[in-house]
Design a protein that fits this description.
Mean pLDDT of chain A: 96
Oligomer: homodimer
Radius of gyration of chain A: 17 Å
Largest sheet of chain A: 8 strands, mixed
Chain lengths: ~280, ~280
């Protein structure tokens, strides 16, 4: 095992007909921390400052869920099915318990997985995310930027991240560009881009997640794991009020909100986020 | 200088006709952290786990503001006048800049002082507090418990803290009793109790602070200091929504909300609070 993401080889494990791409790095011992990525994102789209920072104290595992980027299969169109694939992946690695960090749609999947298979999860970190039937985004340009694709890379471009993940301030925009440079440091053994099928299925799953199912927020009461909820003060993708709701309805949840930031607060304040997550996970 | 509160002697400094009682301990070097106490509270009412924890990395100063407990003079009946006395005290110690930790009414004074004398303040920690004209408490028993006085000590009794500062859960109530034991570890060179004049004047100042003055929350924009806002998830004394407001309106504010706790969250999670405050102050 390598200690840093830059040199962690992409590996594969097969379960229930899906060949899952993953990378494992960091410490050998301790509860692994499994990362669940945002809309359209794969393993290359985390911030090395965050994943390497957290890998100093524990094993870190990145993966592409079914159909996403380098993993085989179709991306399903519900969060529940995505959580089922994630459980398959965890078990295929032979892990009996993990810590979960879910960001954005990855946070929806992390909640669904924790509620459905609580025995697999020790602690939960939910970043830039919200509950089922939470408050939807109101920003008029949200859908436009989410749908942008750079013809050269086949991926969501910097322009979209500047608008959707960071605040309009000079400080935040400058942090975005620094993040973007860090994110592109790995140039070999990288993911293939997400497919149109993945984008369409993730959109459908997000739409389905916005629908009420039973009593609003009632399922959050069953998350008994210690939970850390994190967001920027003005998230236009998953409005910050959803983070307040998570922290109010999950019985043992701590809430941290960062200033002058949005959806990508963990990429704007990587050292601070790592410090807070380390305190929480230890 | 001693390194711990338990053995820090009460000292006095005079300014503008007030003889201020204070205690200074912890490291010799670094920006001092000045604590501003809650309603009816004096120097003996902090949690040693919090003040000694923070004193490991900086000088810590506790004081009784004008008229409170061991300090001479009358307690004024406005937050602005309390802030003026605090500025006198800081200058009487010959300090050009401090970090401020204001809890509850101490947080009101800390805001007023920071707005009025920004050059004196490096960083600001606001715990269990709220802005001018914030949301008032709705709890029907709030006033009753706040007014209770133990005839033996002349002070607000444990019963009031169990109700007002902690959540009703077994975990929180148990943490309250542990806090109470820590709080009473110092038995020599202690404060005299707060006077009826102080209680009445602080009540009047709190009432005045609830009144609107100019555009609601506009003055918070002028707090440019990095600010850490902390509360429990359900503060019935200064409702938690006020902490959200502070973090939204102060330009560079970070918000941390602790689970299953109330007004006295820093006394329920002293080690966690110290860890978070250390990260913020350093």
């Amino acid at each position: 095992m390598t200690s840093r993401h830059a040199t962690a080889p992409t590996q594969f494990v097969e379960s229930s007909g899906i060949r899952f791409a993953f990378r494992r790095f960091g410490r050998e011992d301790g509860t692994p921390l499994l990362f669940m990525q945002h809309f359209r994102g794969g393993m290359d789209h985390w911030d090395p400052a965050v994943i390497d920072g957290l890998a100093e104290n524990r094993p870190v595992i990145l993966f592409d869920n079914a159909g996403v980027a380098s993993s085989s299969g179709q991306t399903p169109d519900t969060i529940d099915e995505m959580a089922e694939h994630a459980a398959d992946f965890i078990q295929a690695l032979g892990l009996s318990k993990v810590d979960l960090l879910g960001f954005s749609i990855g946070g929806y999947i992390a909640q669904a997985l924790t509620i459905w298979r609580p025995e697999l999860i020790r602690r939960l970190v939910l970043v830039g995310t919200g509950p089922r039937a939470g408050e939807p985004p109101q920003d008029p340009n949200y859908a436009k930027y989410g749908g942008l694709t750079d013809p050269k890379t086949g991926q969501n471009p910097l322009e979209a991240f500047l608008y959707m993940f960071f605040s309009p301030s000079d400080t935040s925009q400058s942090a975005a560009k620094t993040f973007w440079a860090r994110r592109h440091a790995r140039t070999h053994d990288v993911d293939v881009s997400e497919s149109p099928q993945t984008i369409a299925a993730q959109r459908a799953a997000i739409t389905e997640w916005r629908q009420l199912r039973g009593e609003r927020f009632a399922e959050l009461k069953s998350i008994t794991q210690p939970t850390l909820v994190v967001n920027g003060i003005n998230d236009i993708v998953v409005p910050t009020v959803n983070s307040f709701t998570l922290s109010q309805k999950i019985p043992n949840a701590q809430l941290i909100i960062y200033p002058d930031s949005g959806h990508g607060s963990l990429f704007q304040f990587p050292e601070l986020f790592v410090a807070h997550a380390n305190i929480f996970l230890e």
